[in-house]
Amino acid sequence: MEKLKIFPKNAAVNSAGHLEIAGVDASALAKEFGTPLFVYDEDHIRTALKSYIEEFKKQGVEAIVAYAGKAFLCLYLAKIMAEEGAYLDCVTGGEIYTALKGGFPAERILFHGNNKSEEELKLALDSGVGYIVIDSFDEINRLKQLLRKYGKKQKVLIRITPGIIPKTHTYIQTGQVDSKFGFSLATGQAYEAALEVLAAEEFDLKGFHMHIGSQIFSLDPYKAAARVMADFISKVKQKTGYEPEIANFGGGIGVAYRVSDEPPSIGDFVAVLSQAVREEFQKRNLKMPIIAVEPGRSIVGPAAVTLYRIGTIKEIVGIRLYVSVDGGMSDNLRPMLYGAVYEAFIATRMNSPSETRATIAGKHCENGDILIRDAEIPYPAVGDLLVIPVTGAYGYAMANNYNCQPRPAVVFVKDGQARLAVKRETFEDLVRNQL
After folding, report:
1. Of residues 74, 90, 365, 404, which has the active-site annotation?
2. pTM of this prediction?
């Protein structure tokens, strides 16, 4: 069934025509845990992560695969990542805290962020975080002063902005010169930062980092990234003799949100990047670095679906059919934030033809609270269970309490069993910290 292409790998349609994930009926999940509900296929996550690791081995390349926690992070997911041998990309003190509470080893954490506070840096140093990715001159000074007080040396990477603009939404382009992230190559700041960090005895410079953006379908920008990285390292080596141990290229490969989407495979991405790095570094007589990548969306995005209950159906004759669900921008901000697109299905009528065009609306007090405009679904009924696939990245991670809406529950399914990973918030939770 072609529609299952964008569902988690263990999704199926059972004899009753219901959606199942890892052997668990979606209607049973909704009944037990309520809606809206994020449902993750645990094996899908583990398999995707293993694919990155195995594909680098096929290329004969030493690699660090660091899951980007910003896509989604909870205690149970941190435990999974630890078990699978991944590294973890954290961007706030809260993400570090969550990772550590989930049993993730601190030495495999890379701490990112364009505005790390002193408190966050102290948490990283106290915890023994493996790498800190330096993002600004202010941070060089802040971290240097802290390390002097601690009397320790810290492994660091320097984030550079390569001037590469991939074809994706402007909000998720991060490699252009005009960016809040990193040190610009075009202005010479990246080279200045390298000299400053190399000269400071508080730092153990392990390499350089760049990230060009997210939801990228073309692999050509990664070839350009390898070339730019090699050029920069060659310049640093000529002036200082320094060669990095690690070249970190971030994440960013896209996923299929619609059946018609054709993103690159993990294998294709790894092959293109590995070959490009090998060629560009060899041309400049540079030693082959450890290639680090930071995938997030491509690991957890397609691994999850969101279940909703249809509450109100409103037809404006000749104009539009609105189908309202019990969630919306409080559990999936992406459509409002940057026009993200999805497809929808009726989870208990997966075999029915999608003959009705409907707009899937959220319940919030915003006219723009639209999850999908012009979705093709079977004719809906009040009480139907609607499912939107590929919601595992930047869904719960951006969930909010707009209109005092409690955030949804999160479950992981595996081998016919469901495991509650995040409890549904209650009204009491909403006011717990209020005075």
Report:
1. 365
2. 0.95
